[in-house]
Amino acid sequence: MQTETRPNRTLDTLGLYCPEPVFRTRVALDKMAFGEVLEVFADDPAAEEDLKSLIRRTGNELLRLEKKGSVILFLIRKLR
Amino acid sequence: MKVKKLGDKKKILYVQTSGVDAPERTYAPFILATTAVAMGLDATIYFLIKGVTVVKRGEAEKIKLGDFPSLKEVMDQATKAGVKLEVCEQSCMLLGLERGDFVEDAKIVGAATLNDRLLEADAVMCF
């Protein structure tokens, strides 16, 4: 059973390289309320592992990671 | 060869900052990491700064020191054994090199991943 999760905020990091996607994701999460969902688009291949690390270390939840060509989409729920 | 379950394995992280201009420093991480896997450990080599030149496609083939096999053979032996190779692509920008064009087994990762690997590792050794 899959339910659609609608993001409360979208962050576009296309064209940006490490560590910008990590920094900007952190800044975006800091502006959000607990329980809200952030959608991040990235095309730096390093972002895949880096954002997973950021999300885990900051105690947030990765709801979905999807790849479409060179673009990676992350759905992150802010828990902390 | 699996001695323990994956989660039980001790982890060693080798950090390679030296490049193909110091070929004598390029063998040890692969040999140590391959040995670590044989010992039932989890081994990762992280390449950054000049270390990225080691995993640029076609470079390891050019290195052969003393009575050792070529660096490419040693690298292939390591990846076949299960050693993980991770590379900081941004180091290419630092050195004025083209991005990408790494050996097939090298995974592109970044700063957050290296920090994470350092915290996860039971031991870290830098070259």
Which labels suit this protein?
A: alpha+beta; globular; B: 127 residues; alpha/beta; Hypothetical Protein Ychn, Chain: A; five-stranded parallel sheet
Describe what you observe in this structure.
The complex is a heterodimer of chains A (80) and B (127). Chain A is of the alpha+beta class and 80 residues long. Chain A is 28% helix and 31% strand. Chain B is α/β, with parallel strands linked by helices and 127 residues long. Chain B has one domain (6-126): Hypothetical Protein Ychn, Chain: A (3-Layer(aba) Sandwich), CATH 3.40.1260.10. Chain B is built from 4 helices and 5 strands, in the order βαβαβαβαβ. Chain B has a 5-stranded parallel β-sheet with strand order 4-3-2-1-5. In chain B, α1 (27-38) runs parallel beside α2. The model of chain B has no long low-confidence stretch (mean pLDDT 95). At the A-B interface, α2 of A face β4 and α4 of B.
Query: What is the number of helices of chain A?
Result: 2
What is the CATH superfamily label of chain B?
Answer: DsrEFH-like
Total count of strands of chain A? 4
Which architecture of chain A per CATH? 2-Layer Sandwich
- Overall domain count of chain B: 1
Termini separation of chain B: 27 Å
Mean pLDDT of chain B: 95
Shape of chain B: globular
Q: Give, in order, the helices and strands of chain A.
A: EHEHEE
User: CATH H level of chain A: which superfamily?
Assistant: TusA-like domain
Q: SS-based structural class of chain A?
A: alpha+beta
Q: Report the sheet-strand fraction of chain A.
A: 25-35%
> How many domain units of chain A?
1
DSSP summary: helix tally of chain B: 4
Note the main sheet of chain B: 5 strands, parallel
Q: How much helix, percentage-wise, in residues of chain B?
A: 25-40%
